[in-house]
Design brief:
This protein is of the alpha+beta class and about 110 residues long. It contains 3 helices and 6 strands. Keywords: Antiviral defense, Endonuclease, Hydrolase, Magnesium, Metal-binding, Nuclease.
Amino acid sequence: MPKKGSDPVWCVVMFDLPVKTKTQRKQATAFRQNLLDLGFCMAQLSVYVQYLPLAAKLSNLVKLIKEKLPPGGDVRILSVSDIQWSKMIRFSSSAEVSGEEKPDQLAIF
């Protein structure tokens, strides 16, 4: 967990959503799209991540995710420090792959 609100963190959202009916599948797709709209990137099928330069923004993000959760859905949200994230070991097809780099700050014109 971050020590203070000014520390950067990676927000990891892991979820299971019901997809047995057509309505449930539409709701699951809408939930995934909402995560993308909030600035998340898909790490795995039901795991999305976002870099937050300020941990203080995490509580608002959690609230927005909770509001969009479909009925019967199960979500876990984990905040990971920048240091912990950089120590991640990642494999793809048995080959080690470097982890995601923290994004550059956006320039506002």
